[in-house]
Amino acid sequence: MGVTGSGGGSPRVVVPEGAEKATVGAGCFWGVEHLYRKHFGDKGLYDAHNEALLIYYDPTKITYRQLLEFFYRMHDPTTINRQGPDTGNNYRSGIYFHNEEQEKIAKEVTKQANDQWYKGRIVTEVVPAGPWWDAEDYHQKYLNKNPWGYECPSHFLRPFEALEQK
Fold first, then answer.
1. Which residue in the list 28, 32, 52, 74 is annotated as catalytic?
2. What is the top-level taxon of the source organism (predicted)?
């Protein structure tokens, strides 16, 4: 869980004190990373690695809830071990929390998205984050370096109404 590759990877970015991290899995990691960078790149996102995606962010600019609502908008959380044509358990939908507060928020947002957007069909797993390995260098920012590279067709921002806060 949280594995991005067989080891190696790029050197860790210097993460400012006070940064928090979020880990999500939404299938085809190049597209997941690309969409998060595109949407949050100038809004307090420090770094992101993928397959699941490990995100370092500034909690004074972006909330964990915002990251998770975006997660449910940008992929299909209703298919088991699949995103578009990509199949296998490495393409499962998952939120991997790092503390009790993240667990609470992840379960709340999942329930709200399931009720309001996906009508009871969400199959996303919400479990503790496990060990982490960075993907190899050529995977990092892949779609920035290869703009015509493969991107899963199920990765796009869905135009849902905002989730109702309870």
1. 28
2. Eukaryota
- The matching CATH number, chosen from 3.20.20.70, 3.10.180.10, 3.40.630.30, 3.30.1060.10, for 20-145 is 3.30.1060.10
Q: Strands (DSSP E) along 7-148, which ranges?
A: 20-26, 45-49, 53-57, 82-83, 86-87, 93-97, 125-128
Task: Name the average pLDDT for the chain.
Answer: 83
* Annotation marks residue 28 as catalytic: yes
Signed CA dihedral, 91, 31, 101, 161: sign only: negative
> Strands 93-97 and 20-26, how do they pair?
antiparallel
Domain ranges for the chain: 20-145
How many whole angstroms separate alpha carbon 93 and alpha carbon 83?
8
Q: Name the amino acid, one letter, at 90.
A: N
Q: Starting from the edge strand earliest in sequence, which strands make up the sheet with 93-97, in order?
A: 45-49, 53-57, 20-26, 93-97, 125-128
Other beta carbons within 10 Å of 68: 25
Choose between 133 and 54: higher pLDDT.
54
